[in-house]
Amino acid sequence: MNIKRRDFLKVVAGSSLLLASGDVAFARTAKKLPPSAVGILYDATVCIGCKACQNACKQYNEMPAEHTAPEQIWDDPVDLSGKTLNIIKAYKNGTGATKDAEINGYSFVKRHCMHCIDPSCVSACPVTALDKKSDNGVVTYNKNACIGCRYCQIACPYNIPRFEWDDPFPQIRKCQLCDHRYKEGKFSACCEFCPTGASIFGKVIDLLAEAKKRLTLKPGDYYHYPVAHVTSRETSYRPVSIYLNHVYGEKEGGGTQYLLLSGVPFAKLGLPVLSEDSAANRSETLQHTLYYGLIAPITFLGGLMYAVYRNTRKEHEDKGDKL
Ligand code: SF4
Ligand code: SF4
Ligand code: SF4
After folding, report:
1. Alpha carbon of 149 to those of 122, 124, 174: distances in Å?
2. C-beta 198 within 6 A of ligand 3
3. pTM, entire model
4. What is residue 323's predicted lDDT score, i.e. its pLDDT?
5. Residue 107 near residue 269, CB atoms below 8 Å
6. How many CA atoms lie within 13 A of 109 on its CB side?
7. Contact 270, 109 (CB under 8 A)
8. Going by C-beta distance under 8 Å and a sequence separation of 6 or more, which residues neighbour residue 61?
9. Is the pLDDT confidence value at 265 over 80?
10. How many CB atoms lie within 10 A of CB 159?
11. Which ligand is located closest to the Cα atom of residue 141?
């Protein structure tokens, strides 16, 4: 086999021109908040750790109780699981004497799906069992479409989706923002039954405005915290604690529809420190770029095969072989 240098160089030059002719990075546009997006604002400074939200979540999503000891009869989950979609956890430091203080203090935190604006779980799912609704932005799960690959678990930066390991027909489990209750004119059970207004439901734009307003309040002043819904007239009138000047979820990972306020750094409450662009956007841009970038090597290989074919054909012709 004799590949001519000139043919080889032609193929290399052609491939290089093709690569140079387009943008090498094939960027995909980051997803935006749907216009009627709904969500939850959780204010850890107002939370008393009563777990009414956790119990309401179980009741209105028909989830079973979890027991940490066999003789125990009450629900006592230690983390999110195939049986628990929402959990109240606690942070404590030193003496744990002061609420909402990082040092010698304590805080609660409510963990469930963040309903990301650009969700990695949706991006990673190969069969669209996870989907983001175009109207209200809720990230839903369809058990009938799921093939159990659990890519969503690996993709989620918040470690939210859980698998029913002990079920013969397992599903992925995660909070779906009580989407099934909206058609009855109801909303997230965890907010409806929160007695203090620590968890409130509403449109994300209203929740963000409420969160930013709270950051302007003076510690020690009294404020009417709306209860259950951001537009509610029922309020809990209480003194303002010291807030960190940060609405978690406003920007993290491209933004989320679950927003949090706290006096203790969010990393101490177990929430990840994320950049402002979504992981889904980064990974899909990389994937598209790789596929796009493969055009050049494939063309190069095609050209190489053509050069081999032409040269071997000429050799056979010279020998008088029939082709
Ligand atoms: S928090 Fe995780 S499971 Fe929930 S929408 Fe975001 S990526 Fe998906
Ligand atoms: S929105 Fe519904 S499913 Fe999600 S944590 Fe609250 S009660 Fe549970
Ligand atoms: S119901 Fe409200 S106050 Fe009680 S633990 Fe849940 S968020 Fe906190």
Report:
1. 13, 10, 15
2. yes
3. 0.84
4. 46
5. yes
6. 26
7. yes
8. 85, 178, 189
9. yes
10. 13
11. 1
